[in-house]
Amino acid sequence: MKKFMLLALLCLSLPLSYQVQAKEAEYTTGAPEIHGRVMGVSEELRCLVCQGQSLSDSNSEFAVDMRAQIQEMMEGGMSDRQVVDFMVERYGDYVRYRPPFKASTVLLWFGPFILLGVGVAVLYTNVLRRRKQIDETPLTEEQHRRAAELLKQYSGENKA
Amino acid sequence: MIPEIGQFALIIALCLAILQGIFPILGAQLNIRPWMAMAKPVAQGQFIFIVISFACLVYAFVTDDFSVLYTASHSNSLLPTQYKVAGVWGGHEGSLLLWVMMLGLWTFLVSIFSKNLPDEMVARVLGVLGLIAVGFLLFILLTSNPFERLLPAAPDGRDLNPLLQDFGLIIHPPMLYMGYVGFSVAFAFAIAALISGRLDAAWARWSRPWTIVAWSFLGGGIGLGSWWAYYELGWGGWWFWDPVENASLMPWLVGTALIHSLAVSEKRGGFKSWTVLLAIIAFSLSLLGTFLVRSGVITSVHAFATDPERGTFILAFLVVVVVSSLLLFAWRAPKIGQGGKFELVSKETMLLANNVILTVIAAAVLLGTIYPIIIEGLASVGVIEATNKVSVGAPYFNAIFVPLLVPLVFLVGMGPVARWKKADMPDMLRQLRWAFIASAIVAVIVPFLMGGWSWMAALGMVMATWIVTTAIYSLRQRFKATNPELPWGHRLNAIPRSFYGMHMAHIGVAICIVGGTLVSNYMSDKDVRMDIGDTVTVGGYTFRFDGVIETKGPNYMSNQGMIQVLQDGREVMSLKPEKRVYTVQTMPMTEAAIDTGVWRDLYVSLGEPVSGGAWSVRVYHKPFVAWLWTGVILMVLGGFTAMTDRRYRVMARKERKATAETGNLAAAKIATEKA
Amino acid sequence: MKFKFLLPLVIFVVMAGFLWKGLSLNPNDVPSPLVGKPAPQFELSQLHQAEQAVSRDSNLGKVWLLNVWASWCVSCRQEHPVFMQLSRMGEVPIYGLNYKDEREDAIKWLKDFGNPYTISAHDYKGRVGVDYGVYGVPETYVIDKQGVIRHKHTGPVSAQALRETILPLVRELKKG
């Protein structure tokens, strides 16, 4: 009840020049097509003050500013690629959220798959070598019988 | 006075840990019974003193003792009591004390639940745990003492970071640390086995339950962290591949490989050196994680305040532990037997392949996490240009993770159905044909049900359906193999719990995949400016902005948004996202309003006030996101179920009886005969 | 000891080496790709005299510092005494780039704490800052006679950084 009164009072105290016309809210970054592109590019750029977020995820002032600037650049006609290049020119590769594909990142991008290949190769050769190396003598009659007895004994306990 | 008692208790614990670390291991080598027998009481004593120390720190927080520097930095008189307690582990020094207390707890549990283990083994395991404790206690006492005084005392504290003033802080770190630290037990068992040269199926059976429990806690802790970040940070992300998150994921991945490897060692006597190595790697990754988080080498929103001195100490400790254990491994592993042989197509090979993939994923995560450090290091010695510094973010990890996940998931389905030693691939494929078909059908249908074709979504659904259908098939097959004369309740009971646990955990993975895939591909959000009365429609729901009111909390002021949610014109709920400003630290914090449902979450986040009484608001529709955490819960339950398998309890009972009757030798004989 | 069993150890030692090096580096440091390139052109209104312009070209022929600052920036207050002292020394002109700040707030800040800047440019929207790759204030650039950026210092300039890095560089550039 109290909260309702408070809310009513607040509503009454709003300036009369206020637009009470309800409408579909607008995007904070421009028209829908631009908004989509801005968010798309923002997802590829790192928020430099945010410790690990992309420009699209972050709500920090820096990120909000940057998105506004990207919006301006796009409204001015720059393509997605040009916007990213613009940022990289000024902030370096670090601003790319997805590490670029360069000589210095070959190990990064290929490493895991090379490792997988090596792992599978080692696995393969190891299993084959095992087959040759390990000599298994088949069980004797006596051993078979003992094994069967132990199994019966153990599964007998199961049923109890 | 109390803080001094706390510090003194730590010193005593350190002394006990030193005794615990040195004498039992030497005693086991030289066969000196009294030294080995020392292990249990000394370990238990160490735990008690650490608990005393921890209690003193909690006391300092709860009584607002701001003459303690740590309390003054992380607490405040206005802080609600539960956060005063949880705040104890909100900072570097206190969280280390929690770490060490968890280590003490695990050590204590090992000392109690080890009656069926040979004395030399217990002595070595507790000894290794003691040495680890020595390292951490030294670290605390020398560089990170939580009991350091602040004189003159501060009039009030700097308050706990508002982001941490949340239920999540109460449960996430303790659970996470239980897991992290728990791998020290598997590690200790591995080292003990290497020292003794005795690495048999019995060793694997002893280690396995401890490893499963640690793995379950770690998984649960990671899931909790993800959920907490989701609702707390205000933009609904649930995994960021943040270095600290990766630091917890890596031991978990290797831990998963370790559990599977232990299964083979236990049942088939194979993979022994692999298992030992994985145990060493898992715990090393735990330690590495501790290093990454507290040394300042990486940027992370989770990182503790640090200085290079602390970083150097942890690195030195990490190097000592890992180098000595890997040297021991290199020396002793060649002498470990190889176990039985098996065909290229067999359960063993599939489990081995499973381990390879998991290890590669963990290695990839490690590579991505420390790559910036590698680049900077190479740049600082002039090998490459400094401007090559890259940041490795989510896009990289996602690009690597998904392709590696596919073969892994395929194995998850095939593995349980394959035979040991020699499996028949064509026959397996035939048996699983319905699983293939079902997966394909679901993969095609679901994307269209969700709103549009997506290759990633289809892939995710294929993987998840594959896991679930193969699990059902495997369960059915196992059921059919039980004695048909028994009532079905008994038949269900005849299937070992570890079997149920396995499938529960696997299905948990499938549920996670569904959640992650669908929310990533079908999430929709709108970032809009809302005047009063404005509406925005997302995901079939209409959100109406009814303004913002000011409210007050115990230690903060809040702007609370009133959002009315409508569906098909009818009002279904109201959501109240907040923008809080905490009294002490004055940093603005977003408290998102979330409506959780089985099929979707509605997530509203208040931005900033803009001109004319309007606010920027971000509205999200997140389908299936709750499935992520449901999947994790199922994984954890699966782990606990597997751990309560009869053979761990029966074996313990039988061996306790045997020990009472004829001593250790007989118990060991029974154990190896059953293997 | 067979080699393959030593492999994990070798890998670990290499990694530990990098980690140890990493301890002496700062992960938050973003190396600027602009070092060694011409300073981006700009023309802004002056802070104190709004009708007057200040541009990059007006400084060609001399070595100068460009310090990015703002009245809302807490760390700027930390480095401020260092710049006050530097301006008194008179060795090198310091130009300020007032970044995303209200003009009145900035002027008041300089009045309260002192003004070490020959001229401050008022970059209200922060666009020039972006051109210079500014992401966190304060940041300082050393620019040579040809208008090429020779060094960028991110974060507050300490007396040590001034003494050990910036001043020696300035002196060397002035000679050349």
Oligomeric state: heterotrimer
What is the CATH class of the largest domain in chain A? Mainly Alpha
Radius of gyration of chain A: 33 Å
Described by the principal axes of the CA atoms, the overall outline of chain A is elongated
Mean pLDDT of chain A: 77
The number of distinct helices of chain B, counting runs of at least 4 residues, comes to 22
Could you please describe the fold and organization of this structure?
By secondary structure, chain A is an all-alpha fold. Chain A has six helices and one strand, in the order H-E-H-H-H-H-H. The two termini of chain A are 65 Å apart. By secondary structure, chain B is of the alpha+beta class. Chain B has helices spanning 2-30, 33-37, 39-62, 69-74, 81-86, 92-112, 119-143, 167-196, 201-232, 243-268, 272-295, 308-332, 347-380, 394-414, 425-431, 433-450, 455-480, 488-494, 497-522, 626-643, 646-662, 664-674; strands spanning 524-530, 535-538, 541-552, 556-567, 570-575, 578-582, 588-591, 593-596, 600-610, 614-623. Classes of the chains: A mainly alpha (160), B alpha+beta (675), C alpha/beta (176). Chains in contact: A-B, A-C, B-C. Chains A and B meet through helix 1, strand 1, helix 2, helix 5 and helix 6 of A and helix 13, helix 14, strand 1, strand 2 and strand 3 of B. Strand 1 (26-27) of chain A pairs antiparallel with strand 1 of chain B, so a sheet runs across the interface.
